[in-house]
Amino acid sequence: MTTAIHGQPATAAHRATCRWLVAAVFPLALLADRAHAQSAMGFKPEFWWGAAVLDVRDANFGAGAPDYRAPSRVIGPHTSWTELAVRPGFQLSAASGAGVVEAKLTAVGAATRGSGDAQVYSFAAGRPSKIAVEEAYLRWRSGGTFASLGNNALEVTAGPQEFTVGDSLLVGQGTVNAGRKAASWLVPRVAFAGPVTLRINTAPVRIDVFALGNRSSQKDVAGLDLPRTRFRGINVEWFDGGDNARFKYEERMQYVGLLHMQVHKAEEAGLYPGDPNTLGAHRSGLRVTSLRAGMFEAPGLPSLSVFAELARQSNGTAGRRVDARAYNAEIGWAFDDWPWKPRLLARAARYSGDADPTDDIDRSWDPMFLGSNAGRNYGATVHGEIVGQGIAFNSNLRVRSVGAQLQPLSGLRVYLLHYRFQWDQPAQFGSTERALASETNLLAEWQPRSGTIVYAGLATARPSAGAAAFFAAFGDAVQAPLGPADRRIRRAHLGITQQF
């Protein structure tokens, strides 16, 4: 079936993207030719792989998870699965007086085996697997061309690429690892489809300008992928930190950032047809603005860390009107002089819901391109191993959490996190029950050597009345014979990743 974007056949959209790529790549190709003529090429191979085993008891609070291909088939409530992913690739580079030109190509092969994963839908049912190109870009860095601005102050990248803004609350992951794409826990696929980004890596103010699209495949996910979306935007950020802070978010000791972006083309589809909690259903014409600030170390109080982001989504297009809001805040205190270097934190977040789904304004927050790694620690943007990863995807949700991080050994970090979840507007799915669930996570990361990380975790979540109401409404909407959502979920995982 041909997918339509804003009323055009997919082939027309592909031709438009190709025009963007030609316009961006042609001048870079000229620079590459010049650089190649003046210097030897560098070659750098790379290889990443990951594997994980997960086991879930009483998936979706005992309701089970509908098979995404056929919702009348319910997976669980006990399910277990194994994920394996590899990402080989290489990078070519050439330096000259005109800067540095890089070309990178990577591919991802991923597979999931077992009885199926345990999200709202079971997106890993049916032994999915897929091999596809991940990053395939040409990049020019200015090198010392503009020495007064700093080394590599300008960077232009054309083609499929990874791209993140701030905490990745809005822009962090260009691909949903679901359906045939497999490996939803390992998340090996994150690149956007391109076409182009410009980074101005100056200090103390840096700027990102981007025109990007996500990688959505309704064929791979039986029509349940997020809408194919093309968007443009600008991110301006003031920061304080060392020279590497111009390039790396986690190196910015203090920062203030402003993001504005607009969706100019998108599929007209929500993630869950028939369910009022449709993520991404009104993207075409959507405007998104966010203001964020953070301190990894507060001036004069290096033990204190604070992070906050306020965001609004609006759309005035007839038939797609949107007025949604969100915030995410965190405060932490580190005891670096104590044994095991404990760090305590507290978080609060709200992603608006729609109290009246029958009116002509959608007030439910669209998580857009939410990333799973905020560059800090667990729970910063994806809240909880169970509810945040598989049930409530940062929409129509209120979260309160507290946690602790410990470092009992060099290379080993342990996290204890507790969450309380509420629906922001339970009327969005025809309920009056606001309380959703409470969840506790015990997680560990061990890095025995550079590039190798071993993950282990136990998680449990207890339902409240709002969980039963939601899954009853969801089962009716997708015509799935779900059981009652009244049991405690228990999940265990063990995984490893290696980067060479």
Description:
It is a single chain. The chain has 500 residues and is mostly beta strands. It is 10% helix and 47% strand. A hairpin with a 2-residue loop joins strand 4 and strand 5.
Low-confidence stretches: 1-38, 272-277
Approximate helicity band: 10-25%
Number of helices: 3
Q: Structural class from helices and strands?
A: mainly beta
Give the total of beta strands: 23
Tell me what portion of residues adopts beta-strand conformation.
over 45%
Distance between the termini: 40 Å
Global geometry: globular
Mean pLDDT: 89
Cα-atom radius of gyration:
23 Å
Series of H and E elements: EEHEEEEEEEEEEEEEEEEHEEEEHE
What does the largest sheet look like? Answer: 18 strands, antiparallel, barrel
Quick summary:
The chain has 500 residues and is mainly beta. The chain contains 3 helices and 23 strands.
Defining traits:
23 strands; mainly beta; 18-stranded antiparallel barrel; globular; 500 residues; single chain
Outline the secondary-structure elements:
Elements lengths: L3 E2 L2 E2 H29 L3 E16 L7 E3 L2 E6 L3 E18 L2 E16 L14 E13 L12 E5 L36 E6 L4 E9 L15 E13 L10 E15 L20 E9 L8 E12 L5 E14 L8 E9 L9 E2 L21 H7 L6 E13 L2 E12 L11 E15 L2 E12 L1 H14 L10 E11 L1
Parallel strand pairs: 16-18
Antiparallel strand pairs: 1-2, 3-6, 3-23, 4-5, 6-7, 7-8, 8-9, 9-10, 10-11, 11-12, 12-13, 13-14, 14-15, 15-16, 16-17, 17-19, 19-20, 20-21, 21-22, 22-23
